[in-house]
Every structure is written in structure tokens, then in C-alpha cells.
Amino acid sequence: MFDLIFEILYPLILALSITSITVNISPDKQERRSIVIFTVVNYFMTIFIHIYRKDIILEVAVIFNIFLYLYIASKRIWRSIVIALCANIIFAASDAIVGFIDINILNFTYSQVISNLKIYFATGLLILLISHFLSKIIRMIYNRIYTEGSNIKEYLKENLIAILYIVSGLFIVNVHLIMYKSLVKSIGRVNTFLNMILIIEFIGMSVLLIHSSSKNIKNKLRQEYKEKEYQQLKEYTDRIEDMDSDLRRFKHDYINILQTLGGYIETGDIDGLKEFYHNDLLKESNKIIDKDRYLSILKHIKIDALKALISSKIINAYSYGIEIQIEIIDDIHELSINTIDICRIIGIFIDNAIEAAILCDKKDVKIAVVKNDDSTVFIISNSCLEDTPPIYKIYEENFSTKGDNRGIGLKTVRYIVNEKYDNVILNTKIKDCVFKQELIIYDLKA
């Protein structure tokens, strides 16, 4: 009876291992229906290969099946190849680790493992557990790099040696695994040990290389943000100087304005006074007031980089004829989030708000910062078209209304919020042609 259960469940365990690895390390969102179909295909493929004991065919079939599944989902051939090779190495590494445990720690022989179905079944479960754990670690490393470098694609283009090492290394290790299973007839302590060492060595070297690249990306990103911060602070300072010049000019003309008003009053020319007030005086005053209004509000933000960023974005919005409303009542001295990260998030929000508002007849962007007892809330809303895509679609990687391969902003925001901060919550709403982003940053107690 157990023989029948084993023949049914063991291939399922291997199929689930392959599916778990693929889903964990793939950066693309997987639909549940696609995952089920992929698992079923893996299951029947594994049953066929398991019956005929053709492990070498299993290696090749697994790589091809993963590649085909990812390529259909993403239409990216090179990324699909790399992920398929990486998934097979993770699967092989899990197999090698379990083999090392069985033979070198538990002192089983290879013949004992394959002849005792209960041990064999337990081995399969352990492979599933370890492969899931390893793939999660790889995913965490990827997420760390992704959130620290929004320009990772450009950086990798400049570091072809790293790419070539990883891709060629993946290929060589996969060839080794296939040759190992086809040429080695008996598996002993030395074989399992050397096999595991080879795989772990490659994974270790890859992790070190990725870590080094990650640090370089982070340093480059910091430098870019320092340069942007300097430019934005310069724009903010220039804006203040322009406002000061306008006020000086207005003060200089103050006596002339009073004399003009006095002239209209003395002659009793009320109609002329009204015309002068509405057409000349009020218009000039409003120009100065409009320039001064948002600058006086932004003084509540005591984080220079963030203040300069918002000021720069507002200036940009004005150039497109967008009506900006900004509300900040309390002083914002500090936030429980990295300065670069909050600048990235707010910058993406305002950029998207401007781009969406430009398309509308009524061009509105509203910015509010609310200080609560235990949190700070940023609210950015904008007018949008009626055919704005649903929220789940907007947050998909590479989705964009601006063209191919440009939709990375909101995906980056979601990664930052979900992967780096437990105290940050993002709410997105679309209602009555208004797109609203609400970012809640809870204070961390010292």
C-alpha cells in the first residue's frame, strides 16, 4: 500500500519543490491558475522520469519547463534562461545537501536510501523544505538589491563581467550536474561531499559578487541623490531669491501705488480706481502671493532634502499649468524612514500625479502632510482620466501608460514599503476621477 502512495506522492513532492523555487525567485507576479498548471506539468513529467529512473532527463526537462513557463509569462528570454538555470542549481543544491545529510551525517548508504521507501520519501520532503528555504534567501537578496538601486539595469550594463560570470557560472554548474548524474554510477561520502562543496562554492562566490555589486549600486545611488538634492536646494534658494526680488520691487512701487490710488480718489474716478485695482494692482499682487504661498507652507518641513524635492516638483507642475494645493500645518522635523527612501517615494508620487493631471481638462494636484501623535501621513491626490487602469494593474512591474519598460516607479515604491519597513503603510484609492496615494509612517519609539 505504501508503495502505491509513494509512487503518487514522491513525484508530487519533487514537482512542488520545482514550483516553489520558481515562484520564489521569479520577480514577476504569478497567477494562481498558471502556478497550478505549471505544477501539474511538472508532476506528470516527474512521474514519467521517475518511473524510468532517468535523472539526467529530469535535469534537462526541469530547466526547459521552467524556462518555457517563465518565457510565456514575461516574454523575456534572457531573464527566463537565467532564472531557469538558477532554479535548477537551487534544486540540485538542496538535493546535494540532503544527500550529504543522509550519507555523511545519518550514515545511510545510497542503496539504503533508494531501497527504503520511507527514507526515500522523507528525503523528498527534506528536499522540498530546503529548496523552499534557499529560494527564499535568494529572493531576499534580490529584493535588497532592487530596493537599493532603481537604476540597476543601467548599472549592470556597465558591469558586464559580473553578468558574464554569473551566467557562465550557472551554465557550467548545470552542465556539471548533468554530467555528474550521468557518469557517476555509485554515490558515496566523497562524491556527495565534493558535489555539495562545488555548488555551495559557486553560490557563495555569486553572493559575494552580488553583495559587492549591491554596495557599488548603493554608493552610486547615494551620490546621484546628493547631486539631485543639491540641484533641488539650489532651485528652492533661487525661488526664495525671486520672491524676495518681487517683494522689494513691490515695496519700491508702494509709494507710486499709493499716489495713483490717491489720484483716483481725489478726482472721484471710482470706475478708473476699480479698473486699476482689478487689472493692475490685484493681478501683480496675486503673482507675488502665489509664489510666496507654497514656500511659506513648505517651511514646516524641516528635512531639507524633502523640502527641496517637493519645491522642485511644484515648480515643475506650475510650468504645465497645473493647479497645486498644498497643506502642512505642523512642523515635520524627522521621519522614521530613510531620507533617500522617502524622497524616492514622494518624488515618484508627485511625478505620477503631474503626468496624470496633464491629461485632464481640470489639472489638479493636492499635497498634504498631516502630523499625528504617533505617525506622519503624506497624501498626494490628482485628477485622472475615467479609463485609469485598476490599482492592481498599476503596481505590476513594467506597467506604464507612458510606453514600454518605463513602469517601474510604483513597483519600486511597493518594494520599499513592503520589504524594508514594518512601520510604513501605503493606501491607494481611485474614485470619481481622483487618484489618491496615502503614505502612513508610524513613529518608531527610541
From TrEMBL:
<feature type="transmembrane region" description="Helical">
    <location>
        <begin position="57"/>
        <end position="74"/>
    </location>
</feature>
<keyword id="KW-0472">Membrane</keyword>
<feature type="transmembrane region" description="Helical">
    <location>
        <begin position="6"/>
        <end position="23"/>
    </location>
</feature>
<feature type="transmembrane region" description="Helical">
    <location>
        <begin position="119"/>
        <end position="138"/>
    </location>
</feature>
<dbReference type="InterPro" id="IPR032834">
    <property type="entry name" value="NatK-like_C"/>
</dbReference>
<feature type="coiled-coil region">
    <location>
        <begin position="226"/>
        <end position="253"/>
    </location>
</feature>
<dbReference type="GO" id="GO:0042802">
    <property type="term" value="F:identical protein binding"/>
</dbReference>
<protein>
    <submittedName>
        <fullName>GHKL domain-containing protein</fullName>
    </submittedName>
</protein>
<dbReference type="InterPro" id="IPR036890">
    <property type="entry name" value="HATPase_C_sf"/>
</dbReference>
<keyword id="KW-0175">Coiled coil</keyword>
<feature type="transmembrane region" description="Helical">
    <location>
        <begin position="81"/>
        <end position="107"/>
    </location>
</feature>
<keyword id="KW-0812">Transmembrane</keyword>
<keyword id="KW-1133">Transmembrane helix</keyword>
<feature type="transmembrane region" description="Helical">
    <location>
        <begin position="35"/>
        <end position="51"/>
    </location>
</feature>
<feature type="transmembrane region" description="Helical">
    <location>
        <begin position="159"/>
        <end position="180"/>
    </location>
</feature>
<feature type="transmembrane region" description="Helical">
    <location>
        <begin position="192"/>
        <end position="210"/>
    </location>
</feature>
<dbReference type="Pfam" id="PF14501">
    <property type="entry name" value="HATPase_c_5"/>
</dbReference>
<feature type="domain" description="Sensor histidine kinase NatK-like C-terminal">
    <location>
        <begin position="338"/>
        <end position="441"/>
    </location>
</feature>
